[in-house]
Specification:
307 residues, eight-stranded parallel beta sheet, globular, 12% strand, alpha/beta, 8 strands
């Protein structure tokens, strides 16, 4: 089985709300069409950028249903299904398989510190809910509170459905460790770079592509970055990565949550209205609108320079 459908740029899908703060299927559909038009490889739905931990099972079902109704084979779709209990996670996994997603993904359970065998059982039970669907481990220890160790990873490689890791830990060395161990066990194995600021270094360490929370506001720039890496244009790639990082740093400089800034940038540059963010995440404060406009302009200038 070829895993090429996972190699490339996969933006993390943003939560889409109406003016009352409820899930907007219309906005979900519009964002999906936007990604199709931009030419990205696929999307990662209901993850951190999708504010999944603040949404109900019903809401997360509605989001992936709308994505799949629009994507229709034009995007690789990975749906993050982890909840903080196994039952709900399995419900979302089963629902995802019925919809025909390409893969499901899951972080480890948060809050209670569990032994590795319990985390492995959690992931394997989720996978059992979608026995015909690829499974991707989401490693983001700085938020989940649990790191994917090599011993836990070795245990998970026994699961035939495990085909990749979305690695959002900060050390790029982790990418090399998971890539080598995965390929050794399964011959073909996918590792996604997580930290957007480290895309070039992550790819250099063996990442097959990336899943990122800022890709959505500037997909053309990440597509160009990936292209130059493939072509061996190291100097050009580094220059673009540095400019992308300046954009990201600016997006993180507001008082409001970064995803609230990102959605405002999409409204300014792409006329996409995705609403705000869900509390307790902070929506935009007065000074943040100026920052969002500055970010929008930085992206426009970068596209003029590099594309």
């Amino acid at each position: 089985m070829s895993l090429n459908k996972y190699r490339g740029i996969l933006p993390a899908f943003y939560a889409c709300y109406d003016e009352d703060g409820e899930i907007s299927r219309e906005a979900v559909g519009n964002l999906t069409r936007y990604f199709i038009e931009k030419g990205v490889k696929g999307v990662y739905v209901n993850g951190s950028s999708g504010e999944c931990i603040y949404q109900s099972v019903k809401e997360r079902k509605a989001i992936i249903e709308e994505v799949m109704s629009v994507a229709k084979g034009k995007l690789t779709v990975i749906n993050h299904v982890a909840c903080n209990n196994t039952r709900d996670s399995m419900i979302l996994a089963e629902h995802s398989e019925k919809l025909g997603v390409d893969a499901i993904a899951a972080i480890p359970p948060i809050y209670f510190k569990l032994p590795e065998y319990s985390i492995a059982q959690y992931w394997n039970r989720i996978s059992q809910g979608a026995p015909q669907t690829d499974f991707i481990i989401y490693n983001i220890p700085q938020l989940a509170g649990t790191a994917l160790t090599l011993s836990l990873f070795d245990e998970m490689l026994k699961n035939d459905r495990v085909i990749g890791v979305k690695n959002s830990s900060m050390p790029t060395m982790d990418i090399q460790l998971f890539k080598r161990a995965g390929v050794r066990e399964k011959e073909d194995f996918i590792v996604f770079n997580g930290p957007d600021e480290q895309f070039v270094s992550g790819r250099a360490m063996g990442a097959d592509g990336g899943i990122g929370g800022t890709y959505a506001v500037m997909p053309e720039l990440f597509l160009k970055l990936d292209e130059w890496i493939k072509e061996g244009e190291r100097k050009k790639a580094l220059e673009l990565q540095y400019d992308i990082n300046e954009i990201i740093y600016k997006m993180c400089s507001g008082r409001g949550n970064m995803y609230a800034l990102a959605k405002e940038v999409l409204r300014v540059n792409e006329n996409l209205d995705l609403g705000g963010v869900r509390e307790p995440l902070e929506n935009l404060h007065d000074g943040d609108f100026k920052i969002a406009k500055d970010v929008a302009m930085m992206i426009t200038k970068a596209k003029e320079m590099y594309l």
